[in-house]
Batch of 3 targets.
Target 1
Amino acid sequence: MKALTFQGEGDVKVMDVPKPSIAGSRDVLVRVTLGAVCGSDLHILHGHTPMNPGAVLGHEFVGVVDDVGPEVARFKPGDRVVSSFFTACGHCALCRKGWFNQCVDKGTFGHGEYFGGLGGGQAEYVVVPNADSTMEPIPDGMDDEQAIFVGDILSTGFFGAERAEIRPGDVVAVVGAGPVGLLATMSAQLFGPARTFVIDMVDSRLEIAQELGGIPINAKQTHPVEAIERATGGIGADSSIECVGLLSAVDTAIHAVRGGGTISMVGVPSAVGGEFPYMRMWLKSLTFRAGWCNVQKYMRPLLDLIAAGRLHPEKIISHRMKLDDAEEAYRIFDAREATKIVLSP
Ligand SMILES: [Zn+2]
Ligand SMILES: [Zn+2]
């Protein structure tokens, strides 16, 4: 089958690789109908995330069930499905507490041997282990281009917005207008903020943020914290959602909120540690939340919100390309010439 493989730092290639087949009794083989390119894929491309050469890339995918193991209860061949970007066993102590991303037996798709040795979704087929607690059926009538987002970045954006504790009438600051920041902006609207400021340095992304209900602030042209203070009578935002992961972005997210406010960080950290303003956090009684998304908890309600027409994540798709052109897709996404790219096999 055709698949995009990692070859080494800066080098990915579409190749012919052996078609995978189910091995475990809880496995499902999915024929991929749509994959997507994610910022996390670029971390692999640049060597910031370790990956073994030859491994298949891609952790955002939807498809049709092709084959099921004997213990799979929720799916049968022919079902349309969306997968979380990671597997969870569904029965360990932390899965039972609802924290599927802390599962003792998890693996991440498209991340090679270091993250569970799973296959990837930028391919024609992928095996999904522990399928009953990793996938959701796609509602009838919903496009692949809508459903694919609940497996990672829409869930992540919503997770960020929910943990920002937004209340009706609030002022929210979203730091970063990449795909996750845009979907955090979209998700934040479900909680009824009066104003959602979105900070970035790329005008084309800020224009989309504006279409999604955001008020753009270009950090190249104006100091974002000062701009938010000016707009709020010197008080600051009620909460911020950090969607970049750079220490400077985390710093902006902390300084943009008022006393008693909440900072919700979902950006993948670019550094292991950094300075943390303990005194400011304490003096201003701030709440700081950080973490990667517990996707399995959010897929079902988000599919229901999309089906009801209350979320339109497909609006951020800028490029529809073929898997054969995946190398070019990585190049233009890396150059920030694309907002979100989907790939069809
Ligand atoms: Zn992703
Ligand atoms: Zn588990």
Target 2
Amino acid sequence: MSLPDSAFDVAIAGGGIVGLASAWQLLQRRPDWRVLVLEKEDRVAAHQSSRNSGVIHSGVYYRPGSLRALNCRRGYGLLLDFCQQHGLPYEICGKIIVAATPEERPALDVLLERGTANGLTGLRLLGPEETREIEPHVRAVAALHVPQAGITDYGRVAQKLAALIVQAGGVIRTDTRVRRLHATPEGVRIEADTWEGMAQRVVTCAGLYSDHLALRSGASLDVRILPFRGEYYELKPEREHLVRHLIYPVPNPNFPFLGVHFTRMITGGIEAGPNAVLAFRREGYHRWDLHLGELAEALAFKGFQRLARRYWRDGWAEMQRSFSKKHFVRALQRLVPELQPDDVVPARSGVRAMACTPEGQLHDDFLFVETPRILHVCNAPSPAATASLAIGETVAERVLKMTLAKQGK
Ligand SMILES: Cc1cc2nc3c(=O)[nH]c(=O)nc-3n(C[C@H](O)[C@H](O)[C@H](O)COP(=O)(O)OP(=O)(O)OC[C@H]3O[C@@H](n4cnc5c(N)ncnc54)[C@H](O)[C@@H]3O)c2cc1C
């Protein structure tokens, strides 16, 4: 591109689905603006945005009124429109959330209430027989049917956003790791390892490194990102008939993850997972991937120590599922008892960026931190892929307000 490096109205650090959706939403509002996306990898969406379950979440789980609930519901509609408009594959296949024991049954009422408060319609409590009509191989005391849940390929959504950004005159610079940002009266000086430049405003959407970039750029932030790897197995083709759509357990109220589940993929095949184990490096996709500095940083963080004390039992069970296929399959057998260890083969993994507070709680919502001229997206966990276009709207509106404030309008 021929634009001079100093001439950008907005630069976005991080080319995952949230950064790209933000750039695209900005360009929708201000086609005259020069927008730059800086991505440290050699391609966009190399991390969470293409290493996820591909589920279009309906909003049944999230606290009514929270940013997750509001952006999930709004993002859901925007995402479906976007996929339709650009010929991207998606399917609204519905899901069931399964109570495997009578003790789990009341949790379905809570989810039904939450989902209804979040504006979902068509939610239905099912008995064991009705559950089997939808998923013949599931054993359930009861289940909640969520017809709005769906599947897509977020990697492809991100690629499409990138293409549209470039088509609209935006610039995407890969292989460019942003080191730090300095806000000055003239704009924000961006220091990257292979580049230096200025922009009037900067948004950071750095996923697993969102805290590092915000802190290095002078933001005051008490949360830290903890990386939780999620590992998947895949059903062998001859056993795919065991699962028709999406089958989830009732979430463990003591543990902030959804539990291993079955997901039909839009590209074909059925995945089972992901579990949730602390990764020993932020982009640690394999069990033995280790970065001493990053691991030491996590272990030394008071918030992690408190989290580990609170959840050690669940964390240990997740570790067992990581190291033993038998344990992993045992969790899946609570949903589909016929499943056997031989029916699944190890598949890919992803690492979730989860902001943890010093008190040892995983921050339960999206988190934005604003400093002069810079907006940091500090926590964008699931359902941020579903919600990405709505988060992008929020980011765009906030950046426009920043600009208006500066011009005194
Ligand atoms: C296992 C798993 C399953 C999930 N399942 C679902 C699901 O089914 N449905 C759903 O809605 N959500 C799901 N999610 C969540 C969803 O994938 C994420 O919330 C979403 O992708 C976050 O997007 P992002 O752009 O913030 O982060 P990322 O996709 O991680 O993007 C951040 C980008 O910033 C870049 N970056 C980092 N530091 C720098 C720097 N200093 N300079 C330049 N670039 C930098 C990174 O290379 C990366 O490309 C899942 C996540 C995981 C891990």
Target 3
Amino acid sequence: MTTERNSCIRCGECCVQSTPSLQREDIPLVLEGHIRKKDLFTVRRGETLWDNVREEVRPAPDEIIKVRDRDGRCIFYDDTQKACRIYEHRPAQCAALECWDSSKFMAVYAGPKASREDFIQDRVLLGLIREHDKRCAYERLASLVQEIKPRGEAAIEQIVEILKFDYHLRPFVCEKMAIHPDETDFLFGRSLIDTISPFGLQVIRQPDGSFFLTTLEKSASKG
Ligand code: SF4
Ligand code: SF4
């Protein structure tokens, strides 16, 4: 975003076009409760994302913690007041953003990013997150998708197992650890059912609770 301005007129354009990711200096904002875990979601390594800075679609090179959006607009943007609802406690990327000059933003953006481990002390929960990351890694999914052609049903079954693990772990953790369901996109990233389309696959939920894995062109398997 670049314009002819040389100061902020608080038009809100930057808040309705994207949301910030959290840098390490933003960790206190979450620990002090100004931003809640359910206001965030995790982009796990390898997840396909639109990179605002490079202006391209690419796999995330590392884990990113992002503020949620609603139809692309930051959830903290108040349309009526045309203002940020957490202005005094907004993330560092927001504070550095000057749409007429990207240098301050890029200096912040180049710094170290926050990760889930900065916000979670519970060792059991951290263990589950690591296990989920291992079993449901996007790199693993990408390699299994490549194996569909040579290995057929065996590779598809492994993909279905990954999807099922990702799907069932979320309510299990909420129930056993008294975690609000809205926090699961932060804890485990967005559901693989919702993020699998860049791999050329889609999942259709069946009325009996099972899900049907298909390629975007034709049927693949039921799980
Ligand atoms: S920094 Fe954001 S709010 Fe300020 S003028 Fe630029 S687009 Fe508008
Ligand atoms: S946190 Fe506030 S300043 Fe940052 S994008 Fe959201 S509404 Fe805008």
